Amino acid sequence: MVYRVCVVGAGIIGVSTAVNILESIPNVEVTILAEKFSPDTTSSGIGGLWMPYLAKNTPQESIYKWGKTTWDHMMEILRSPYADEAGIHLKPIYDLFDVELDKDPFWKDIPLSYRRCNQQELDSLFPGYVSGFFFMTLFCLCRLYIPWLMKRYKARGGKVLKQSLSSLSEIADLYDVIVMCTGLGSHHLLGDKEVYPIRGELVKVKSSWTIATSAEKDGVLQSYLLPGIDHVFCGGLAQVDNWNEQSDPKDVQGVLEKCAQLVPSIKNAKVISSWAGLRPGRSSIRLEKENLRIGTTIKKVVHNYGHGGSGATLHWGCAQDAAQLVMQSIQELNRSKL
């Protein structure tokens, strides 16, 4: 028997989950259903560096597990002939603070060459910052990575359906298992009031030879710079409960001013573009299965959403666990038919 699985959502979480379901579970027909596909998803606009961020109350052991799995997956791609096509590359980054670090991050042994910054580095490169750390991390350019994953998905027979949903009752009778990778859409589609937007503004400027840098002041992210080949992405906003998806000139100016304080060389850089996106915040990442009543039927539903600013960092580990939950749901369906 072939089981029909629908993955709702086509961001980095949805597409990676669909790939893992197809590649790990036999006798399934998988459809990705979404209103928007790359390059029109929030995921497609992000810088995509590996570093846990805005995952709030999610247990550290879960973040470590999912993050390590994702790191290993991305490293495998980096060492393959597909790295450029998939948009995966390795770069150094400084993470800076205006107070003394009392401890290292719990994930420090996952990336390469982690160390604390010495005083000479701070005084020479980042005056005004008291502490920080340096490491080599992976960058996932999602505007390339998601289409690359989608190509892999379709090569295995995966289906796609462009459709807007106002209720799960519209598809409940069409699939055996529904997988919710709906990010911020879970607030409306599932009525999950623990989901909220964390608005960010990303400004692309013409620049080169800039090292990746992020900085916090008073415990709040102030600015970050993520370099490309001939450009730099500048960011730093995390506006909770702001639903505005339009780029705001005042926010753009604020981002550029803060980034120029951190790395003065970009002060007069030409702005190429700006983009605003809403990260899917939640009290904690929701990765679980349930029997959900939809109308008059009970449906097998798997949830995988609420990753905040850690979607690229955790996506493959979460996708593997979500695929396991789909497998368990199918096994439960099999037993119910005996």
Unreliable sequence segments: none
The number of E-state strands comes to 15
What fraction of the residues are assigned to beta strands by DSSP? Answer: 25-35%
Characterize the main sheet.
9 strands, mixed
Question: Can you put this structure into words, describing what you see?
Answer:
This protein is α/β, with parallel strands linked by helices and 338 residues long. It is built from eight helices and 15 strands. α2 (60-78) crosses α8.
Task: Briefly characterize the structure.
With 338 residues, the protein is an alpha/beta fold.
Key phrases:
six-stranded mixed sheet, nine-stranded mixed sheet, single chain, alpha/beta, elongated, 338 residues, 15 strands
Would you spell out the secondary-structure blueprint of this structure?
Blueprint: E1 3-8, H1 12-24, E2 28-34, H2 60-78, H3 83-86, E3 88-97, E4 112-116, H4 119-125, E5 131-140, H5 142-155, E6 159-162, E7 177-180, H6 186-189, E8 195-206, E9 212-217, E10 220-227, E11 231-235, E12 239-240, H7 249-262, E13 271-282, E14 286-294, E15 297-305, H8 311-336
Parallel strand pairs: 1-2, 1-7, 2-6, 3-9, 7-15
Antiparallel strand pairs: 3-5, 4-5, 8-11, 8-12, 8-13, 9-10, 10-11, 14-15
